[in-house]
Design brief:
The chain is of the alpha+beta class and 110 residues long. The chain contains 2 helices and 6 strands; from the N terminus they run βββαβαββ.
Length: 110
């Protein structure tokens, strides 16, 4: 399948690169995974929620993906809140491919 990957996130105010987002085909879970990150100075402004929601919508509507996963470090409570806010549910916990404890979430297209 083509049409997905990582995209730069740019500030609307000054057109500066402030992060990245997208979908990958994760070898760890053998499925589609949502990825996003923002420079710290842009945290707490609702951008992560906006970005994650847009990528999920794109995956479901344009790419016709049925399920999207996301994974976080258990200490990253803010990303957990973002995922829960847009409808993701915790699926399982285990070590990732690097041996780090990870929480996996998924969202099914309705």
């Amino acid at each position: 399948m083509k049409g997905f990957g990582m995209y730069g996130v740019f500030s609307k105010e000054n057109d500066t690169l402030i992060g990245y987002c997208g979908l990958i085909l994760s070898s760890d879970i053998n499925d589609y995974e949502l990825i996003y990150a923002l420079d710290k100075q842009y945290w707490g402004k609702g951008l992560a929620t906006e970005i994650a929601n847009a990528i999920v919508k794109y995956g479901f509507e344009k790419l016709k993906i049925k399920t999207i996963f996301a994974s976080i470090d258990p200490a990253n409570r803010v990303s957990e809140i973002v995922l829960l806010k847009i409808g993701f549910l915790e699926k399982f916990r285990r070590e990732d491919e690097f041996g780090l404890e990870t929480i996996y979430f998924n969202l099914d297209q309705v």
